[in-house]
Write a structure and sequence with these properties.
The complex is a heterotrimer of chains A (about 270), B (about 425) and C (about 230). Chain A contains 6 helices and 12 strands. Chain A is of the alpha+beta class. Chain C is of the alpha+beta class. The chains are: A alpha+beta (about 270), B alpha+beta (about 425), C alpha+beta (about 230). Chains A and C meet through α3, β12 and α6 of A and α1, β8, β9 and α5 of C. Chain A: Its main location: cytoplasm.
Chain lengths: ~270, ~425, ~230
C-alpha cells in the first residue's frame, strides 16, 4: 500500500499485469452501487447514491412559474451539480469548480436529448403556469467517477418526484394547489452512464476511483437507455485509440446499464 | 536545508530565460529610435504623419455583425435585440447597452475575466459618443409605453490590438448599428407578436448621425502630430486627443489623455482634421453597407470593403482642409509645423495669443460646431466631471425636442461665456 | 444511406497568421460557421497552475453574444483535453499554452469547426504535436421516430449539419481523429441511436476527416509557398 502512494504508476502496472486492481476488482468491474430514494422528506423527490466511496445526493424541488416566451407550453428542468470543498481536498471553497460545471452541462444535455421527462407534461396552463424542477445534486464524498453516480441520482430522484395537484379556478383564473393529492409523473426512460478511463494507453478500466483518475488519461462515458441504444457518448482526451477498444466499452456499458436498471425498478416498486 | 530553496530559485531563473513573458518587451533603444524618426516626420510603417492605415470592413451573415480592421488592429461588433421592459424613468424609450470584451486573443496581458482599464475606457467612450449624442433613436424602440420595449445590446469584441483601438471600435460599432435589423412586431389587443425574419421584413435601427472617433497622437513635447497611432507609437507618445465627430462636423465628444500642453489652435486644427477624416469614413461605411446589401441580394455570403492606405487619401485631406480653412495659416495643418506656435508654459504669451487671434476665434466659432469650449472643460476636469456634464447635456437635450439646433445654441452660449472671460482679462 | 457523402463539407476556408500579437492564429470557416483562434505558448505560467513535469493547457471559449456560461465551460474542457493529448507537453515543463477560441459566426457544427480551427492555430504557432486533431460532426435525422419497421428507409446522415439540420435531427455526434492513423481521439455524441447507427456515423466521419486533412495540407502548403515569395 505504501508503494501505491509513493510510486502509483509503477505499482499499478504490476497489478494490471495480473489483471486485477488494487481494490480487488477486475478491470471492467464496477464498484458496489447503493441506491436509496426518498431520503430527503422535505424535497419533492430525492435520491442518494453510493458508488463505492463516492456519494452523491440529489434533491428535486418543484415550483410554479411563468413559462418563457419561446416555449409557452413547456416546463423547465434545471440540474445543478455542486462539488464543494466538503467532498474532497481536490476542490477549494468558492465558485463552482470546473468539474462541477462540466457535469452540470452534461446532465443538462442528457435531459434534453433523451426525454426522460417530457417537458410538456410539466405544463399546467399554457403561457401562464408551468412547473420548474430544480434538481440540486451535491457530492458528499468524492472518490472518482462522480458522473455515473450523479446520473443515477438524478434519474432516480426524478422518478421519485411527486407533485401536488393543481386546479385552476375557472372564474378567477387563479391556481389552487392541493397538497393532499400528489401524483408522480411518467418518466420515459432509464438512462444509465458507465465511465471508463484509459491507463497507459492500453488498459481500459471501468468505474475509476479518485487515485485511478489521477494516474490515467482520458475518460470515456457511455450512456445507454432501456432499448440498449446509445444516448450519449463522450470521450475526452487520452491517446488515439482504435475503434475495437471503443466497441468493447460500448458492449460493457450496455451490460452494466441493464444491471443498473434493475436497481431503478427495485426502488420504484 | 537552505540550498533547496536556492536551487529552486536558480532553476526558475534559468527556465525563466527560455519562457516567454506575457507582455512583449520594449527596449529603450527602440523607444528613442521611434521618437527620433517621428521628429523627422518618418513613421515605422512608412506612412505620412496624417495618413491612416488600410481600413477593411467586412460583414457576416447575421444582421448587425461586422469586423473592422485598421492595419493590424481588429475589432468585431455584434448587435442583438431583446424584448424587455423600458426603464422606469424613461417609459417611452428602448435601451442601448454597450459591452466591450477584451480577451487575451487581442493582447497577451489582457485579462479575459474582466475588461480592465482600457476596456472600461473604450466602453465609456462609446457610450458617450453613441448614446449621449443620441445617435440612435431610442423612442422608436418602444413597443408599449412602460411595458415592452426593445433593448439593443452592442457587443464589441477586441480581436487584435495594434494601437488606435478606439477608432476601430467606434467604426465597428456604428457600422454594426447601421447594418442591424430587428424583427417586426405587431400589437394585437393585449398580445404582442414578434414576427420572424421570414414572416415580415425586419426593421433597421434609426441612426440619426454617425459619430466617429478620430485619435491624434502628439509627440516630442507636442511638436509633432500623427493620426492613427500604432501600438508602439502609443507607447512613446506624450498623449492623444480623441475626438468624436460626425460628417456634419458636429463634435460629440472630445477627450485628451496623457501629459500634454497644447494650445487651443492645435485643438482646433485637430478638429479640422478629424472632421475631414470623419467624412471620408462615413462615406466608406455607407459604401460598405451598400456593397453588402447588393452582395446579399446576389446570394454572396461575405463581402469586404477596403479603403487602401494610399497617397490620394492624404491628398483629399489636404485639399479639403484648404477649402475649409479661412486663413492661409490653416493650410499648414497638413504640414503640421506646430513648433512655431507651440506655446507651452508661458502664460502671458498665451494670453497674447488669445488676444491676437480673437477674430479668428469668433469666425471659426460661427462656421464650426461649437463644443470646443465644452470640450476644453471636459478634458481638464477629469473623468467624473465629464460624465456628469454629459448627463447634464443629455437631460437638457431631453427637454427640448430639436436636438441639432438646440445643441449648437447651447454650446454657443457656453462659448460666449468663455470668450467674454478672455475679453475681460485682456 | 450515405446520400451526402459525395463531399458535403461545404466550403472550407482557412487563413493563418491573422492576429498580430498571438504566437499562432487561424480563422477557420466551414460552411457558414466561422471561428477565430489565437494561441500563445509555451509561455509564462502562474505558479499555482504550474506542472513540473509538463506544460499545462488553458482554453478560453468566447461566445459572440453574452457572457460565457456552463455551455462554454463544457466546450473548453472538451477542447482542452484534445489539446492535452496531442501537444507534446513534456517538452515544455512549467509553462502554459493558452488557446483562445472566439466564435465569429455559428451556423451549426460549431464544435468541430472550433477544433479544426484550434488545430490549424497550433500548427501555425509551430507547437510540436503528436498529430493534428481533425473533427467532423455528423447528424442523424429520422423522419419517423420509434418505428422500427420504417427505420432503415427514413433515416439520413448529414455531415457537418447547419443549424437547421441540427434542429431537425435526433442525434448529433462529433468525432475527433488523429491526422496520422485516423484513430479517434475524442467523441461527443448526444441523442438516442443504436450502436449500429453509431458505427455508421463514425465511418462517415472518418471518410470526411480524410478530406479535411487533405484540405489542411493544401492550406498549409499554400501558406508556406506564399511565405517564401
Amino acid at each position: 500500500m505504501e508503494l501505491l502512494n509513493l510510486q502509483p504508476v509503477e505499482s499499478y502496472k504490476t497489478f494490471l499485469k495480473e489483471n486485477i486492481r488494487p481494490d480487488g476488482r477486475e478491470l471492467m468491474e464496477t464498484r458496489q452501487t447503493v441506491l436509496n430514494v426518498g431520503s430527503i422528506s422535505t424535497a419533492d423527490g430525492s435520491a442518494l447514491v453510493k458508488l463505492g466511496e463516492t456519494m452523491v445526493i440529489c434533491g428535486v424541488k418543484a415550483e410554479l412559474t411563468i413559462p418563457s416566451a419561446e416555449d409557452p407550453g413547456k416546463g423547465i428542468v434545471v440540474p445543478n451539480m455542486e462539488m464543494s470543498a466538503l467532498c474532497s481536498s481536490h476542490f477549494k471553497p468558492g465558485p463552482p469548480s470546473e468539474q462541477a460545471q462540466v457535469i452540470t452541462k452534461f446532465l443538462d444535455n442528457l435531459l434534453k436529448s433523451c426525454t426522460v421527462i417530457d417537458t410538456a407534461d410539466l405544463c399546467v396552463m399554457k403561457d401562464k403556469l408551468v412547473w420548474v424542477l430544480y434538481c440540486d445534486l451535491i457530492c458528499l464524498n468524492y472518490d472518482g467517477n462522480a458522473l455515473d453516480a450523479s446520473v443515477l441520482a438524478l434519474i432516480a430522484a426524478l422518478q421519485n418526484v411527486k407533485i401536488p395537484e393543481v386546479t385552476v379556478d375557472d372564474e378567477s383564473g387563479l391556481p389552487h394547489t392541493n397538497m393532499e393529492v400528489k401524483k408522480a409523473f411518467a418518466t420515459r426512460g432509464m438512462p444509465c452512464a458507465t465511465t471508463f478511463t484509459v491507463f497507459d494507453g492500453s488498459h481500459i478500466i471501468a468505474d475509476p476511483t479518485l487515485k485511478e483518475e489521477d494516474i490515467t488519461e482520458g475518460n470515456i462515458t457511455v450512456v445507454t437507455d432501456e432499448h440498449d441504444n446509445l444516448i450519449y457518448v463522450q470521450r475526452q482526451g487520452g491517446l488515439a485509440m482504435p475503434e475495437a477498444e471503443m466497441q468493447k466499452c460500448v458492449k460493457r456499458a450496455v451490460e452494466h446499464g441493464s444491471e443498473m436498471r434493475k436497481l431503478y425498478l427495485a426502488v420504484a416498486s | 536545508m537552505m540550498p533547496i530553496n536556492l536551487l529552486l530559485k536558480l532553476y526558475k531563473l534559468f527556465h525563466g530565460i527560455t519562457i516567454m513573458p506575457r507582455t512583449p518587451a520594449f527596449s529603450k533603444l527602440e523607444h528613442e529610435f521611434l521618437l527620433k524618426a517621428i521628429s523627422t516626420g518618418v513613421r515605422l510603417d512608412q506612412r505620412d504623419m496624417l495618413e491612416y492605415r488600410k481600413i477593411g470592413i467586412s460583414f457576416g451573415i447575421d444582421y448587425g455583425c461586422c469586423t473592422v480592421e485598421i492595419g493590424e488592429t481588429k475589432v468585431m461588433a455584434q448587435v442583438a435585440a431583446e424584448m424587455d421592459r423600458p426603464r422606469e424613468s424613461r417609459p417611452s424609450e428602448g435601451r442601448l447597452n454597450v459591452h466591450v470584451e477584451m480577451s487575451t486573443i487581442a493582447f497577451p496581458s489582457f485579462d479575459p475575466t474582466k475588461p480592465g482599464e482600457l476596456g472600461v475606457g473604450i466602453q465609456r467612450m462609446l457610450e458617450r459618443s453613441i448614446i449621449l449624442s443620441r445617435a440612435v433613436d431610442l423612442e422608436a424602440l418602444c413597443v408599449r409605453v412602460g411595458e415592452k420595449s426593445w433593448t439593443i445590446h452592442l457587443h464589441v469584441h477586441v480581436l487584435s490590438h495594434d494601437g488606435n483601438l478606439i477608432d476601430c471600435a467606434s467604426i465597428a460599432a456604428i457600422t454594426a448599428l447601421k447594418h442591424f435589423r430587428y424583427p417586426d412586431v405587431s400589437v394585437i389587443g393585449q398580445d404582442i407578436v414578434i414576427h420572424t425574419m421570414e414572416e415580415k421584413h425586419p426593421i433597421p435601427l434609426t441612426v440619426h448621425h454617425m459619430p466617429l472617433y478620430v485619435s491624434l497622437a502628439f509627440f516630442k513635447g507636442c511638436e509633432r502630430l500623427a493620426i492613427d497611432p500604432t501600438y508602439l507609437e502609443e507607447k512613446v507618445m506624450d498623449g492623444k486627443i480623441i475626438l468624436s465627430i460626425n460628417k456634419h462636423k458636429e463634435l460629440c465628444s472630445l477627450q485628451m489623455n496623457g501629459q500634454m500642453n497644447i494650445t487651443k489652435e492645435q485643438i482646433l486644427r485637430c478638429t479640422e482634421i478629424a472632421a475631414v477624416r470623419a467624412k471620408t469614413l462615413t462615406e466608406l461605411i455607407l459604401n460598405a453597407i451598400k456593397t453588402d446589401t447588393d452582395d446579399k441580394k446576389l446570394g454572396k455570403t461575405k463581402s469586404q470593403t477596403v479603403l487602401e492606405k494610399s497617397k490620394d487619401n492624404k491628398e483629399i485631406l489636404k485639399s479639403e482642409l484648404t477649402v475649409n480653412s479661412q486663413t492661409s495659416e490653416e493650410i499648414q495643418i497638413a504640414n503640421m509645423s506646430i513648433n512655431e506656435d507651440a506655446v507651452t508654459d508661458d502664460a502671458i504669451k498665451n494670453g497674447h495669443n488669445n488676444k491676437t487671434e480673437k477674430p479668428y476665434w469668433l469666425t471659426q466659432h460661427d462656421r464650426q460646431t461649437c463644443s470646443i469650449g465644452d470640450g476644453k472643460v471636459n478634458a481638464w476636469s477629469g473623468d467624473g466631471a465629464e460624465s456628469s456634464l454629459g448627463i447634464f447635456k443629455a437631460l437638457r437635450a431631453d427637454t427640448q425636442p430639436e436636438e441639432k439646433s438646440e445643441d449648437e445654441n447651447e454650446d454657443s452660449e457656453e462659448e460666449v461665456v468663455i470668450l467674454d472671460d478672455s475679453a475681460l482679462e485682456t | 444511406m450515405d446520400l451526402n457523402s459525395s463531399l458535403p463539407l461545404g466550403n472550407l476556408q482557412c487563413e493563418q497568421k491573422v492576429l498580430k500579437n498571438t504566437d499562432g492564429s487561424a480563422m477557420y470557416t466551414a460552411g457558414e460557421t466561422n471561428v477565430l483562434v489565437g494561441v500563445y505558448g509555451p509561455a509564462d505560467c502562474k505558479e499555482s497552475k504550474q506542472d513540473v513535469k509538463q506544460a499545462v493547457v488553458e482554453v478560453n471559449f468566447r461566445p459572440k453574444i453574452g457572457i460565457p456560461g456552463v455551455a462554454e465551460k463544457y466546450m473548453e474542457k472538451f477542447v482542452c483535453k484534445i489539446c492535452e493529448s496531442v501537444i507534446l507537453r513534456s517538452f515544455h515543463p512549467r509553462t502554459a499554452f493558452s488557446v483562445i477560441v472566439q466564435v465569429m459566426q455559428d451556423q451549426g457544427s460549431l464544435l468541430s469547426c472550433a477544433i479544426n480551427a484550434v488545430s490549424m492555430a497550433l500548427q501555425d504557432a509551430g507547437i510540436s504535436m503528436r498529430c493534428m486533431p481533425v473533427a467532423v460532426t455528423v447528424a442523424l435525422q429520422k423522419k419517423e421516430k420509434e418505428d422500427n419497421e420504417m427505420k432503415d428507409d427514413s433515416k439520413k446522415f448529414v455531415i457537418s449539419p447547419s443549424t437547421k439540420d441540427e434542429e431537425e435531427s435526433v442525434a448529433i455526434a462529433t468525432f475527433v481523429f488523429d491526422s496520422a492513423q485516423y484513430d479517434s481521439i475524442s467523441a461527443y455524441a448526444c441523442g438516442p441511436m443504436t450502436s449500429d447507427e453509431y458505427r455508421e456515423c463514425l465511418r462517415l466521419a472518418k471518410e470526411a476527416s480524410k478530406h479535411i486533412v487533405r484540405f489542411f495540407r493544401d492550406s498549409v502548403s499554400r501558406k508556406v509557398s506564399t511565405d517564401i515569395r
